[in-house]
Amino acid sequence: MKFPGRVLGLGLMLTCISALAATQDDFFHEKVSQTITIQAEPAKVWALIGDFDGMARWNSIVAKSVSIDEDKDSLTRKVVYKEDIGSEVDVLDERSDTDMTLRYRVPQNPWPVAHFNSTLRVSRGAVPGTSVVEWRATFDVKGIYSDPDGKPSLDMPPGPIVFGIDIETYNGGSSTQTVVRDKRTVQIITDLYRSGLDSLKWVMER
C-alpha cells in the first residue's frame, strides 16, 4: 500500500544527534502535540488506531508493528520504522474504548531521550461525521555539550538563558562551556507524529 507524505530524511539526522549527545546528566523536559481533523466517524477511526499492534496499517513511516513479550502483564509491541530510522519498544499503560484513548510509554527508542510517554486520542469533531485525533508525547532530552577545549565539565553550574535562546552558559577560566537544548530531537518526533496523522487521514478518507 502506498501512502502520501514527505520524505523526512530522519536516519541521517538521528546519526548526527547520536554523535553529539552529551554523556552527562543534563536533561530538558519537552512536549510534542499534533492534531488532525478527519472526515470519518470517531468510532470508525478508533477501530483502526485502537488496535495497539496495528500501527503499520495506518502509519506510512512504520514498516511493521508486532507484539512481543506476550507473557508480561502489559501489552508490548516493537515498532520498526522505515528510512533507516530504527525501532522502538512501546508498553501499553491504558486503553479506553469509552474515551477512545491509548496511553503508552517508550522505554526503548532511537533518540537521546528518557521518560518517553505518549497518548493517542480520538474525539468527536465540531462538524457531525468528523473526528479529531490528537497524538502527544512528553519526554526528557539529553542536552548537547559544546566546549571549545573539548573538556566538558560534569559539575557545571546552571547559567542564564541568553536572549530567549535555550542555551545555558558558564564562563570559567579561558573557555566557555555550554549545554544546548537539543531542538532537533523535538523536531524529529514532531515530524514523525505529523506524518503519522497525515497518513491516518489519507487512509480514513480515501
Walk me through this protein's architecture.
This protein has helices at 10-20, 42-49, 183-205; strands spanning 27-38, 62-68, 76-81, 87-96, 101-108, 113-124, 131-142, 144-146, 161-162, 165-172, 175-180. The radius of gyration is 20 Å and the shape is globular. The chain has 206 residues and is of the alpha+beta class.
Output the radius of gyration: 20 Å
Helix percent band: 10-25%
Unreliable stretches (pLDDT < 50, length at least 5) are 4-8, 10-24, 150-175
Count the DSSP helices. 3
Report a brief summary of the structure:
The protein is of the alpha+beta class and 206 residues long.
Produce the secondary structure layout.
Layout: H1 10-20, E1 27-38, H2 42-49, E2 62-68, E3 76-81, E4 87-96, E5 101-108, E6 113-124, E7 131-142, E8 144-146, E9 161-162, E10 165-172, E11 175-180, H3 183-205
Antiparallel strand pairs: 1-7, 2-3, 3-4, 4-5, 5-6, 6-7, 8-11, 9-10, 10-11
